[in-house]
Amino acid sequence: SELALKDPTLHRDLCRIGGKWIAADSGETVSVLNPATGAEIGTVPYGRAVEARRAVEAAEASLPAWRSLLAKERSRLLRRWFDLVIDNQEDLARLLTAEQGKPYREALAEVVSGAQFIEWFAEEARRAYGETIPAPARDRRVVVIKQPVGVCAAITPWNFPNTIITRKAAAALAAGCTMVIRPATETPYSALALAELASRAGIPDGVLNVVTGDAHEMGLELTTNPVVRKLSFTGSTRVGRILMRQSSSTVKKLALELGGNAPFIVFDDADVEAAVEGAVASKFRNTGQACVGANRFYVHDAVYDEFARKLAERVRALKVGDGTDPETTVGPLIGAEAVGKVEEHIFDAVEKGARVLVGGRRHEFGGSFFEPTVLTDVPRDAMVSREETFGPLAPLFRFSDEAELVEAANDTEYGLAAYVYSRDIGRVWRIAEAIETGMVGINVGLMANEAVPFGGIKESGVGREGSHYGIEDYLEVKYICMGGL
Ligand code: ADP
């Protein structure tokens, strides 16, 4: 095929339910397109509620045996899954670049980082410790045990189609839960390949199911089916609200990783070169399509011109192109709608007085390619200060007063990530504590990995993924009171 996989059987194009590869009952399919070329890579079933329900039944049927394995046994199976992902990283990265568009090097980095979540949770599986609590009565003893939540569902987006799945699924499986995953329609192949490798690793049929198809119908089934005890969703705040509302009928546990509007703050005492490097990594990785990516740049008046000039230089050197070209550092956006949003934010800012320093237009390659863009003198009332662009646009705002800066940075309903560049230790602590986000990077532009708690506050979401907190989210606490002693 066009993908030139070493192992073409990793390119699965059917739903994975109860250990079987199956088409939709209706026979309907949907095309998966390569965003760089617009060409069809293949199709997947366009499933409906019935396929989602069947996958939930499969997850339910496999739960008792999976839950009853020794933690050590689940750990070994996860470890084998990790090994297979690592062994097949090149094919997985090829699939990822083809369906998502990111440069091959970034795809490979994502696959390896996704694998590290599996490795991490293989280790955490053995550490789901309970607790004993000194009892408040002489004839009683108090014990707390941890048990798997049960059948879980995951609804995932297209921007990190490998990592976002492994950090949910590996945590769930480590805890003893079984899962139904509904990946984004744009990027189903990464999810299906992961399911294939899980099966080869010996993870039993039905423990990990993947269904593709109608977002609304499947979402409704997964949120209202009483067998599903937890939903983990990554995507927009708009859809997160819908799923939260739908989940209320069965009072599901929820993990929501939603939108962000990360401020990237550069103080006058910052290492400007380091800040520029961090800014490029945080803003232009994945063509700006990351919920933790910097959305608003607040730069101190004293270093504003220097930062703008150096950032512009670096951004001009970025290479837009097809992700399979080794020279490419910025791939296409996922589609036409995404391009429209970047254009709208630029148009709005310029209309209100901003200047285009670099880029600003659709790229000459056409399709969903867009020029990496830097805007200066962006006014506070510009759309980009409130809305997530999700594209290669860095808008620079000017500040001089720390208190006003904190107020501006927190003036958003989002609270996912923030980045601060400063060498003043007092200031660093002041800002890190005052900023209303779940994650703060000091003098770094990238900070997510398997060992740390990823997640947001305010309307950016609920729960944490990765780290020991990540497995806790898939465990219930049971208090056992022993009396009559
Ligand atoms: P993004 O902007 O990242 O595409 P979305 O929230 O639109 O974010 O999509 C995230 C995931 O949620 C995708 O898999 C999408 O198909 C799915 N989705 C969109 N609408 C719904 C819905 N009403 N119910 C369930 N899932 C949905």
Report on this model:
This protein has helices at residues 49-68, 71-87, 89-100, 104-124, 163-175, 188-200, 215-224, 237-247, 272-284, 301-316, 336-351, 402-410, 425-434, 467-472, and strands at residues 15-17, 20-22, 29-33, 40-45, 131-133, 141-148, 151-155, 178-182, 208-210, 228-234, 253-257, 262-266, 294-300, 355-358, 373-376, 393-399, 417-421, 439-442, 461-462, 475-482. The mean pLDDT is 97. The strands form five sheets. The chain has a seven-stranded mixed β-sheet with strand order 14-15-16-13-12-17-18, sandwiched between helices. Strands 9-8-7-10-11-19 form a six-stranded mixed β-sheet, sandwiched between helices. It has a three-stranded antiparallel β-sheet with strand order 5-6-20, with no helix packed on it. α4 packs parallel to α5 (163-175). It is 39% helix and 20% strand. By secondary structure, the protein is α/β, with parallel strands linked by helices. The structure holds adenosine-5'-diphosphate. This is NAD-dependent succinate-semialdehyde dehydrogenase. Belongs to the aldehyde dehydrogenase family. It comes from Amycolatopsis rubida.
What's this entry about, in short?
The protein is α/β, with parallel strands linked by helices. The chain has helices spanning 49-68, 71-87, 89-100, 104-124, 163-175, 188-200, 215-224, 237-247, 272-284, 301-316, 336-351, 402-410, 425-434, 467-472; strands at 15-17, 20-22, 29-33, 40-45, 131-133, 141-148, 151-155, 178-182, 208-210, 228-234, 253-257, 262-266, 294-300, 355-358, 373-376, 393-399, 417-421, 439-442, 461-462, 475-482. Adenosine-5'-diphosphate (ADP) binds next to helix 7 and helix 8.
